[in-house]
Design goal:
Number of helices of chain A: 9
Largest sheet of chain B: 7 strands, mixed
CATH architecture of the largest domain in chain B: 3-Layer(aba) Sandwich
Largest sheet of chain A: 6 strands, mixed
CATH topology of one domain in chain A: Rossmann fold
CATH class of the largest domain in chain B: Alpha Beta
CATH superfamily of the largest domain in chain B: Aldehyde Dehydrogenase, Chain A, domain 1
Helix content of chain B: 40-55%
Distance between the termini of chain B: 49 Å
Helix content of chain A: 25-40%
Strand content of chain A: 15-25%
Number of domains of chain B: 2
Strand order of the largest sheet of chain B: 11-12-13-10-9-14-15
Shape of chain A: globular
Oligomer: heterodimer
Number of helices of chain B: 15
CATH architecture of one domain in chain A: 3-Layer(aba) Sandwich
Structural class of chain B: alpha/beta
Radius of gyration of chain B: 23 Å
CATH class of one domain in chain A: Alpha Beta
Structural class of chain A: alpha/beta
Largest interface: A-B, 43 and 63 residues
Order of helices and strands of chain A: HHHEEEHEHEEEHEHEHHEEEEEEE
Number of strands of chain A: 16
Number of strands of chain B: 16
Chain lengths: 375, 420
C-alpha cells in the first residue's frame, strides 16, 4: 500500500523548494507537520512501531518541536525481518549498511516510491555542490559494486546514487579470482587521457580511495592530470585515523594524484538508514541539511538538543522514506553543531561537523557479563 | 611523604619489579599485627569525614567498612579469634597461625569508585603488602582517599607497604610484570577485564581470588508488591539499589521479578516505581554519562517495545532511568544505566530455579519468612551467592561472591612442635 497522497504530495513539494535557502523556522514548521503525518501513517502500518511510539514521553501529536518527536536508535534497523511499512511484495530493494566483520548490518526496505525519492534526494543535494551537468564518472571500486540486483550495500548505494550525474561509468579497480583487489592502471590511464580537458566526477569509499587508489599511485609517483575532476568520497574514517591519516592529509593526497586543487575533494556523510540524504562538506568544511531533512545533535546526558558549539549524538531526520520508519533516527555518531543558521557559504539552516563514532566505553563494570556461565 | 604510597604512573615492567622488591622487603622486615591495622583503619574512617570527599559514591559505606566494629567480626569469622592477637591456635597436637602471602596485586574494576581501597584493605588485614593497579578513571578519587590514610598513618605502618600504580590498560608487558611479581592477586571486573588478567602468568604459588563478573536480580512476592501500604517504600529501596554505581556493579539489580497475584495491578506498581525513580533522580542526578551508554539505553527501550506489542515501558525523555515491563521468567540481557526490566512471573521459585552461576545477589521482598527461606535454598542451589533484603543489595561484606575476603590472601602455617 502506498503512502497517502497527502504525504507524498507534501514530500514532493519539498523538492521544488530552494534546497538550502529556506528560513529555518518556516522549514521546521513544515517538516514538523509532515513528520507528524508520517508517524501517524507508520503507526497504522506497523503495530510494533506503534507500540514504541505510544510509549514515548511526549505524544507526537502534541509535540512543539521536531526534537520532541519519537526517534528510533539506529540499532533497531538490525532487526530481522526488517522494520517495514509495506508488504513484502512491495519491496523493490533492500539496502544494507557497511557493518564491520562480526557485526549485524542494518537493513532497510525500499518500495518503488521511496527508492525513487532516494535517488532524487541524493541527486538534488549533490547537484547543489557539483552542478547539474552530466560528466564522465570514475568509480574507484570494482565493477561488482555497480550491480543493481539484489541487496545493495552502502558502497553500492553511494555509487548508484551518483549515477544520474554520469555520461558514462568506468571502474578503476579489479578483483582477481582469489578476491584480491588492485588498481587497473591501463583503464585508469585511458580514462585520464580521454577526459583530461573536461569536468569529471570521481567517487570512492574513503578507505578504499586511500588504500587502493591514492597510496598505490603515490608510491609510483603517478599524477593523473585531471585538474577538472570533482572527487566525492564517503564512509568511515576509523581505519584511516588508526593509520594517522588526517582529513588534510587525505585531501592533499587525493588532490595530488588527480592533479587538482584540494577544494575539489568533497567528503560527504550518509547512512543507509537515512535514505536519500547525504551531507557533503561545504567549502568552509561544514555539513548542511536540505529542505527535506534536519539534524538534531543531542546531549548524551540529557538527550536534549545542544547549543551551537557543543557536541553530541547525531539524530538524522528525513521525510523521504515511507516504506520503513526511518524518519527520525538516532545514530551512533557524534557531531558538533556549528550554527543553526547562516554558514558563510550561504546555505541556511543547521550546519554541523561530524566528530567520529560514539566511543566505546572503556570502563566496564563487574556487572558486565558477556556470556552466561552455563548454556 | 612516603613516595611508595601515592599513585605513580608506571612506564616499564622494570619499574614494577623494583616497586615489588621494595614492598616485599618491607613486609618481610616489619610484621604488622591485625590490631594495629584495625587501629589505623579506625582513624582513617574518621579522617574520611571531610566535605571534599562527600560526593564520592560509596564513601559513606567505606567509612563504615573501616570501623573496627565491622571488620573485627569478619576477621574472627574468617580466621578465628586468635588471629586478632597474632597468636598461634592450638589444633590438636599442632598449632596454626595465619601469615601473609607476601605482596598482593590488585586489579580493581573501574566502575566502583571505592573498590581499589576495598580490595586493598582486605589484603592489608592479612598483613600483606599491596600493589594496586588503579583504573585511570579512579586515580583522583583514590589519591584523595589515600591522602587521608597518609594523614593518620604517621608512622607509615600501612602506607609503607602500599603502592598505587597506574598504567595504560593495553600495556600487557606491565600487567605481565605485575602478575609475575606478586604472591597473590585480587581481581575484580567485567568479563573481558577478568579474563585478560587471569590469562597473565602468575607464579605457581600465587593465590588468585576473582570477584566478578556477575549480575544480580530482585524478586517480590505478590503479597508484598500488591500491598499499597508497603509498595512505595519497597520501590524506594529498589531505586536505591538501582542508582548506586550506575547499575554496573555485580550486585546491581538488572531485573525485578514480580510474582503474579490475584487483584495485584502491575500498573499501580509501575506508577509507584516511577515516582521512586523520579525522586531518586532528583536527589542524585547524574553528572555525566558515556555516550555509548546513552545509545545503549535508547536501543534497549526501542528493542523492548518493538519486540512484542504486549511489552510496556516507562521512561523520561532523558536517559535518566527506564522501566521495561513485560512477562517472563528469564533474565533479559542487562543494559545498565538504571534500566530495570520488570517481569511478571507465575512463581518465584520457578524463576529462581532457572538461575545459573551468573547471578550473584538476589534482592528479595517476601512476606512470609518460611517462604523466603525456601526461596533462599533454591537460590543457593542455583548458584546465587547472596540473598539479601531489597535496598541492601550493595552492602559489601564477607563472604562476597561466595568466598571469604581476607582468608584467601593469608596462609595458615601448621607447626607441630618437635619436643612434646
Amino acid at each position: 500500500m502506498s503512502a497517502p497522497a497527502e504525504i507524498t504530495q507534501s514530500i514532493d513539494s519539498l523538492f521544488t523548494e530552494a534546497l538550502y535557502r529556506l528560513e529555518p523556522k518556516e522549514r521546521h514548521t513544515s517538516l514538523l507537520a509532515l513528520l507528524k503525518k508520517e508517524l501517524a501513517y507508520a503507526c497504522n502500518r506497523n503495530l510494533r512501531f506503534r507500540n514504541y511510539v505510544e510509549h514515548w514521553p511526549v505524544h507526537f501529536d502534541t509535540a512543539d518541536t521536531l526534537a520532541d518527536l519519537p526517534y528510533l536508535p539506529v540499532g533497531a534497523f538490525k532487526a530481522n525481518p526488517p522494520l517495514a511499512l509495506v508488504e513484502a511484495n512491495e519491496v523493490k530493494r533492500t539496502l544494507t549498511s557497511s557493518a564491520t566483520t562480526g557485526q549485524v548490518p542494518s537493513r532497510v526496505v525500499l518500495d518503488a516510491e521511496t527508492a525513487k525519492r532516494m535517488t532524487k534526494g541524493v541527486t538534488t543535494i549533490i547537484r547543489d555542490f557539483i552542478g547539474p551537468a552530466r560528466k564522465p564518472y570514475l568509480v574507484i571500486d570494482t565493477p561488482e559494486n555497480l550491480s543493481t540486483q539484489g541487496e545493495l550495500g552502502a558502497r553500492g548505494a553511494a555509487i548508484q546514487g551518483l549515477r544520474s550525474f554520469a555520461t558514462e561509468v568506468d571502474c578503476c579497480l579489479r578483483r582477481d579470482p582469489e578476491g584480491n583487489t588492485s588498481l587497473d592502471l591501463e583503464k585508469l590511464f585511458a580514462f585520464a587521457a580521454r577526459w583530461r580537458e573536461v569536468e569529471v566526477l570521481a567517487y570512492g569509499f574513503t578507505y578504499v580511495m586511500w588504500t587502493q587508489f591514492v597510496q598505490p599511485l603515490r608510491s609510483r609517483g603517478i599524477t593523473l592530470g585531471i585538474p577538472n575532476v570533482r572527487v566525492l568520497h564517503s564512509g568511515g574514517w576509523k581505519r584511516l585515523e588508526r593509520d594517522a591519516v588526517t582529513r588534510e592529509v587525505f585531501m592533499e593526497g587525493v588532490a595530488s594524484v588527480f592533479g587538482c586543487s584540494a577544494d575539489r575533494v568533497i567528503d560527504f556523510y550518509g547512512m543507509v538508514e537515512n535514505v536519500g540524504v547525504v551531507y557533503p562538506d561545504c567549502k568552509h568544511g561544514n555539513k548542511h541539511v536540505p529542505a527535506f531533512a534536519e539534524i538534531v545533535v543531542r546531549n548524551p546526558l540529557t538527550l536534549a538538543p545542544v547549543v551551537a558549539g557543543e557536541k553530541g549524538l547525531v539524530q538524522v531526520c528525513s521525510v523521504l522514506p515511507t516504506s520503513f520508519p526511518g524518519f527520525l533516527v538516532l545514530t551512533e555518531d557524534m557531531a558538533e553543531i556549528i550554527d543553526y543558521d547562516e554558514c558563510p557559504c550561504g546555505r541556511r539552516g543547521t550546519s554541523f561537523r561530524f566528530a567520529g563514532r560514539v566511543p566505546k566505553a572503556e570502563v566496564r563494570g563487574c556487572g558486565n557479563l558477556e556470556t552466561t556461565r552455563y548454556q | 611523604m612516603n613516595d611508595l604510597m601515592l599513585s605513580q604512573e608506571v612506564h616499564s615492567p622494570q619499574e614494577i619489579i623494583c616497586v615489588v622488591q621494595r614492598l616485599r622487603e618491607i613486609a618481610r622486615e616489619q610484621e604488622i599485627a591485625p590490631q594495629t591495622v584495625l587501629d589505623v583503619f579506625e582513624k582513617w574512617a574518621g579522617a574520611l569525614d571531610g566535605r571534599e570527599l562527600r560526593q564520592v559514591p560509596g564513601l559513606a559505606f567505606l567509612r563504615l567498612w573501616l570501623r573496627r566494629g565491622t571488620l573485627e567480626p569478619i576477621l574472627v569469622r574468617e580466621l578465628g579469634p586468635d588471629f586478632l592477637d597474632g597468636h598461634w591456635r592450638e589444633d590438636g597436637r599442632a598449632r596454626l597461625r595465619a601469615f601473609p602471602l607476601g605482596t598482593v596485586g590488585h586489579w580493581p574494576a573501574g566502575n566502583i569508585e571505592i573498590q581499589p581501597i576495598l580490595s586493598l584493605t582486605c589484603a592489608l588485614l592479612g598483613g600483606n603488602s599491596c600493589l594496586v593497579r588503579v583504573p585511570s578513571g579512579l586515580l583522583e578519587i583514590t589519591q584523595q582517599i589515600m591522602e587521608k590514610l597518609q594523614e593518620v598513618d604517621r608512622k607509615g605502618l600501612l602506607t609503607a607497604r602500599t603502592c598505587m600504580v597506574s598504567f595504560d590498560h593495553s600495556r600487557t608487558d606491565i600487567h605481565e610484570a605485575m602478575a609475575q611479581a606478586v604472591d597473590g592477586a585480587m581481581i575484580w571486573g567485567g568479563a573481558q577485564a577478568v579474563s585478560q588478567v587471569r590469562k597473565l602468568s602468575f607464579p605457581h604459588w600465587a593465590r588468585v581470588a576473582v570477584f566478578g563478573p556477575r549480575l544480580s536480580v530482585a524478586a517480590m512476592d505478590a503479597e508484598t508488591w500488591g500491598n499499597p501500604a508497603e509498595r512505595s517504600s519497597w520501590c524506594r529501596r529498589i531505586a536505591r539499589d538501582l542508582w548506586q554505581f550506575e547499575q554496573r556493579a555485580c550486585s546491581s539489580p538488572q531485573t525485578l521479578f514480580l510474582e503474579y497475584g490475584a487483584g495485584c495491578d502491575p500498573g499501580e506498581f509501575v506508577n509507584d516505581l516511577r515516582r521512586a525513580l523520579q525522586e531518586e533522580n532528583l536527589g542524585h542526578p547524574r553528572q555525566q554519562i558515556e555516550p555509548s551508554l546513552t545509545s545503549g539505553i535508547c536501543l534497549a527501550r526501542a528493542l523492548w517495545l518493538l519486540e512484542d506489542t504486549a511489552n510496556r515501558a516507562v521512561f523520561p525523555a532523558s536517559p535518566d532511568w527506564t522501566i521495561l515491563l513485560g512477562r517472563g521468567s528469564e533474565i533479559p540481557k542487562p543494559t545498565q544505566g538504571r534500566t530495570l526490566s520488570v517481569l511478571l512471573a507465575n512463581e518465584l521459585s520457578e524463576v529462581i530455579s532457572k538461575f545459573d552461576g551468573t547471578v550473584q545477589t538476589l534482592g528479595v521482598a517476601v512476606k512470609s519468612a518460611e517462604r523466603e527461606e525456601k526461596l533462599a535454598q533454591t537460590a543457593g542451589r542455583n548458584g546465587v551467592d547472596r540473598v539479601v533484603k531489597m535496598g541492601r543489595m550493595h552492602l559489601f561484606s564477607s563472604p562476597w561472591d561466595g568466598a571469604d575476603l581476607i582468608r584467601p590472601m593469608v596462609r595458615l602455617v601448621r607447626h607441630v612442635p618437635s619436643q612434646e
